[in-house]
Amino acid sequence: MTKRLFRIKPALTATLAVFLLVCSGCVQTPPEHGDDFQSVIQRAKQRVYPALVFLKPIKQHLSGGERTRQQTFGSGVIVSTDGLVVTNSHVAKDATDIKCVLFNREQLPATVVGIDTDTDLALVKLQLPDLHPPLPTVVFGDSDALEEGQFVMALGSPFGFTRSISFGMISCTRRYLAVGPYNLWIQTDAAINPGNSGGPLVNDRGDVIGINTLRSAMGENIGFAIPSNTVTVVLAELREHGEVARSYTGIQFQPVRDFIRDTLLDYDTGVVVAGVDEQSPAASAELKAGDVIVSCNDVPVHGIYLEDLPAVRRRFASLAPGNPVELVIRRNGALMNLKITPAPKQAAEGEGLELEMWNCSAQEISKFRTPTLAYFNPYGVYILGVRRPGNAFQSGVRAGDVILSVDKEPVAGLQSLQDIYRRRTRFKRGQRTALLEIMRNGQRIFLVLDFNADYKAMN
Fold first, then answer.
1. pTM for the full model?
2. What is the per-residue pLDDT across 333-380, written as a single tens digit (0 to 9) for each?
3. Catalytic residue among 94, 116, 118, 120, which?
4. Is 197 an active-site residue?
5. Annotated catalytic residue within 90, 204, 280, 291
6. Residue 90 designated active-site
């Protein structure tokens, strides 16, 4: 069947566009006299475009058993006249070199100021030459004031195509996702694709009301942005401290009225303890799964619905490490008091170690990064990646193996493994072997690592 194309008369275009926007509730405020859809877009674009940044990080990875470098793309916006740029942590993380292209096509290097993987936000600093004029910046709007149906634009560099705009509306203002434990998400049907990450989600006034971060691979026009109110709080911490310090309790939370699990408790306040991490402050305090936390330091805890959980997690993460906290809990219908002492939260990511002559890489165990390994081995070092072919692989070493000792020398952390490795690299060729004691699937195994072959020379 032949498709027929219909053309609307130019004189009707503006009227029809504004009519559709107003009827659907897309425009936050009624357009001023004489405004049409095109002028709304242009006005918003002109406020944000000059502060839009195209990021070109070169990332370093160790997961394949050796250091590899990869060119990636992302987006960001300038938030200070001296060159601070907000983007996603998955854009800036592991970057050894970052080049940024500004609105005027000026290319400048940048360095990482701070990263917060829990909210997927990062702050980088443009390296401005002397006497460089002040840079244009964006204005953040109030994401708590958003409503479904409002018009938004997603700006960025999808697939490396610089300065692209897609538009749509807000589908949901408070979407709960399993990723990002400390914030809700803005859902939008504006197209968000790889490369848009870190770019701004903008309302019709040109205010940045979110940072584009995720899209659903399961459907069309389902994208997610970090709310601007979350962004401004995290950026203040990154700017001052380079990180967001949080405490760790080991409590897994569940709402009082959990419609997904069909668990509906008849309480008007509190939050349910879904689980307690082994060897955690909560476990030491004898908190148990099924308990309902009613208050924390005499302040009521409100975790009735799923959308309330990020705020509950933020509250417990903000507790001062080392200071005991008074909890009132409900267990088996009775109220009781417990004391819990939060601990500092370890970094979810850390520097890996390349063992070049062994043709593998290693990483420290973390209950946040590798919870399964940490359950059996709370501390230590594991094999992050193994090169194929390579000495470690040929000797039977596999990714996920926990290194307990090398030639009977205990391996307590990356530094001790690095010291052991460096001493063994001085062995003469033909004598380069090491006895590894590893833990694999709960069993201790001894392997002789022969690293006499030079696999780099073979390439």
1. 0.76
2. 899 999 999 998 875 555 678 888 999 999 888 776 667 676 667 778
3. 120
4. yes
5. 90
6. yes
